[in-house]
Amino acid sequence: MDEILTIGQLAKRFGLKTSAIRYYERVGVLPEPARESGQRRYGPDAIKRLEVLEVAKRAGFTLDEARILLQSSDAGSPAFESLRDLAARKLPEVDALIVRAQAMRAWLLTAMDCSCTTLDVCALFDRDAQTPTSAVAEPLSITHVGGAKHAA
Amino acid sequence: MDEILTIGQLAKRFGLKTSAIRYYERVGVLPEPARESGQRRYGPDAIKRLEVLEVAKRAGFTLDEARILLQSSDAGSPAFESLRDLAARKLPEVDALIVRAQAMRAWLLTAMDCSCTTLDVCALFDRDAQTPTSAVAEPLSITHVGGAKHAA
DNA sequence: GTGCACCTTGAACCCAAGTTGAAGTCAAGG
DNA sequence: CCTTGACTTCAACTTGGGTTCAAGGTGCAC
User: Fold this and answer.
1) CA–CA separation, B71 vs B145, rounded Å?
2) Radius of gyration of chain A from Cα atoms?
């Protein structure tokens, strides 16, 4: 049960490339593992950590957020607090994404029925009078959703 | 009514930065406008084009796709054809996005109720047994959704 | 003693959609 | 003339999540 894996074995188990695992280490989302003659050796804790990371990624957290999660989990006690905080902060983002995606979907359905000969006359492209639900806003993206850190 | 705008005025009207408009020109999504002593001057056609572009962007099309749309609209005849094609190609992507976002939302709701003291014991982070709808997959993003052109 | 699989490193590259900066041009106003 | 403000250019940088490359090390079997 307490298997020790090389980076290649670990990568295979998670369907990742070794480069990805080294990258996680570089950005601080995985700790530096023990070494045997220079090579990384991963124990069960690293495996668990990678499992958590994978789920967090699927849940839409960025690596930065996942790092916070994992670090506060290391720090001992209030791991659940930051998980709840992160989830609570993420929820409105995801909700907004869903609303926009659904508006987008409605627009696309209308577009598939369109037979205007030029875009100039097509009502789909009049600003305002947009989709049934008028909630289409910024361009969609989840990886970048709270973004604009570098805005002026 | 046939106003002539400078790049700054055009940008203000669309809530863009001038750099964005120049960028659109650079990537071929806007044509090169007329110039007055070196400066760009935009007429009603450019304004309409930008309106279409904005709607297309909000509908989730990439700039590349928008360029196709606008070019075939310039080329005269079957604007609606490429619009319908693009819309039909985009729809499943958007549908997949919605499914994943909803699974993510469910996971987040569960996470907000979690009171596990460490992540290690938290069932949320067991792979498999994930969300009610098991459809969480790749990390979400729309800007990149058909992506993986550079995959090995 | 060499062939092979696996590992190591850092740096450079990929994508989209722009932004930022430096250095320069132009017209109007005082 | 000088300043102010809006414009011009191009290259380099940003974000996030990695991949790819080149050059070299390590361990083991044949």
Assistant:
1) 23
2) 22
* Rounded mean pLDDT, A37-42: 91
Q: Report the percentage of chain A scoring pLDDT > 70.
A: 70
Its pTM stands at 0.79
| CB B6 under 7 Å to nucleic chain D | yes
Q: Which residue has the tokens 């070494």?
A: A35
Distance from CA of A11 to the nearest CA of B (A): 16
Arithmetic mean of pLDDT, B11-29: 91
Contact B130/B143 with Cβ under 8 angstroms?
Answer: no
- DSSP secondary structure string, B45-101? HHHHHHHHHHHHHHTT--HHHHHHHHHHHHTSS-HHHHHHHHHHHHHHHHHHHHHHH
Alpha-helix runs per DSSP H in chain A: 7-14, 18-26, 44-58, 63-74, 79-113
SS3 A38: coil
Closest CA to C19 C1' — which residue? B19
The position carrying tokens 């929820």 is A91
Task: Quote the tokens at residue A143.
Answer: 């990886």
Spacing of B37 CA from C28 C1' in Å: 14
Long-range (24+ apart) CB contacts under 8 A made by B60-68 are B60/A104, B60/A108, B60/A139, B60/A140, B60/B90, B60/B93, B60/B94, B60/B142, B61/B86, B61/B90, B62/B143, B63/B24, B63/B27, B63/B29, B65/B90, B66/B29, B67/B27, B67/B28, B67/B29
Q: What is the pLDDT of residue B80?
A: 59
